């Protein structure tokens, strides 16, 4: 018998999520028709390859057996990431490619509304019990503060002083915070005890690290190389700095800086990142984070088959995509 996956769950609830998104946008009208149109356009311009908006549905179902009440939180997830991705692209100078039919200034205003005011309106609506509205609102605010801290750490990272621990701290902010936001909100909505809520927070943080590492691998594999173009200090780069032999390690900061403008430097840096020793360390650490996520899930337990769905999602997010000898495309520039 085919085990249910998170993609199956999204397929089952995608129409409900879309309807809830429309209802959320309608809350902006009639007093703010231009805002509604701009946010709707921004949402349409951002298509997510992986339907991780079902994460709060899985959490709620593990706690109660029912995913349906967490549908509004799936929309909060989509709105938050739509805003965060646009702001991240803006910081990287890529906003013109993702704003749809909006100007950059219009898209920026829409991103502000999409990220905070609209999610806050949603959790203050009648779709959410009054007893948890305050806690859910606080998580949205807390998420933005912690995620911004992570992004600032990312932007200010010094490759010469980079370490795996420092990158993990940044990843816990920029990726762990939004995932822990929705896992905690779903647990709160389900009426989970405080100790379980905090376990869900930690799970979201670890899952965020795993997902960021997965995303970093895809960036290289696809040839987009956005991390190299932006000068981002990734976990894989930190592994290279710690695992490379002394001469190569000393050259890495300069090569990393040159990779922002030089295709040849990017290709050379990718070769360093795909060295067997570097990938071996990276693979070992992915396994370590995967085991930690699964340990937390074992402690939490919960309703089957949703616990199985979450375990499978962790496994999917923990895949090692890169290997020595790989020849990914390198973006021109």
Give me the CATH superfamily. Farnesyl Diphosphate Synthase
Q: Quick one: how many beta strands?
A: 0
Beta content? under 5%
The outline comes out as globular
Computed CA radius of gyration, to the nearest angstrom: 20 Å
Number of domains: 1
- Biggest β-sheet, characterized? none
Beginning-to-end CA distance, first to last residue: 49 Å
What is the CATH top level name?
Answer: Mainly Alpha
> Helix/strand-derived class?
mainly alpha
SSE sequence, one letter per element: HHHHHHHHHHHHHHH
Written description of the protein model:
This protein is an all-alpha fold and 333 residues long. It has helices at 6-26, 33-45, 55-64, 71-91, 104-115, 117-123, 130-155, 164-189, 194-222, 226-230, 235-243, 246-258, 263-273, 276-300, 306-317. The longest helix is centred in the middle third of the chain and has 29 residues, at 194-222. The mean pLDDT is 92.
List keywords for this structure.
Farnesyl Diphosphate Synthase, 333 residues, mainly alpha
What is the strand and helix layout of this fold?
Layout: H1 6-26, H2 33-45, H3 55-64, H4 71-91, H5 104-115, H6 117-123, H7 130-155, H8 164-189, H9 194-222, H10 226-230, H11 235-243, H12 246-258, H13 263-273, H14 276-300, H15 306-317
Helix pairs in contact: 1-4, 2-5, 3-8, 3-15, 4-5, 4-6, 4-8, 7-8, 8-9, 9-14, 11-14, 12-13, 14-15
